[in-house]
Amino acid sequence: MCPYFFLMKSYKDLEVYQKAFTLFIETHKFSMLLPKYELYELGSQLRRSSDSVISNIVEGYGRKQYKADFIKFLIYSHASNLETMNHLEKIQVLYPDLKDKANSLVVEYDVLGAQIFKFIEYVKKEWKT
Q1: Hey, where are the domains in the chain?
Q2: How would DSSP label each residue in 1-62?
Q3: The domain 42-129 belongs to what CATH superfamily?
């Protein structure tokens, strides 16, 4: 059992949530640097996918007593994480002046994706309902 399990009072105590939330805020601010015509196209897609990463963690945690549902929403979160990385990779190519910051975010989302994956594996093997 996770040593922090007994200290968890809400989804906000999950490391994956905390990292995803911090990245969402960073990504949202970054998306506002896109040209005006991209704010409602690629910028909107980027904001929605990064928000989906955290929203699915929260919704899954809300269903934590149903292990299969919890896992399903964590998988959705992982998929949204990949989608976010893809949007950032497109920005790197389309907007060279934003390439460094986009790359930095890709690296952070890659780390988050590994954390989400490990958390999924933990829930599969160890989570008690």
Answers
A1: 42-129
A2: --TTGGG--SGGG-HHHHHHHHHHHHHHHHHTTS-GGGTTTHHHHHHHHHHHHHHHHHHHHH
A3: 23S rRNA-intervening sequence (1.20.1440.60)
pTM assigned to the model: 0.92
Cα distance between residue 11 and residue 103, in whole Å: 28
How many Cβ atoms sit within 10 Å of the Cβ of residue 2?
A: 12
Residue-wise pLDDT for 48-95, tens only, equals 999 999 999 999 999 999 999 999 999 999 999 999 999 999 999 999
Q: How far apart are the first and last CA of the chain?
A: 12
Give me 114's structure tokens.
């590994």
Kindly provide the b/e burial profile for residues 19-32, where b requires at least 16 CB atoms within 10 angstroms of the residue's own CB. bbbebbeebeebbe
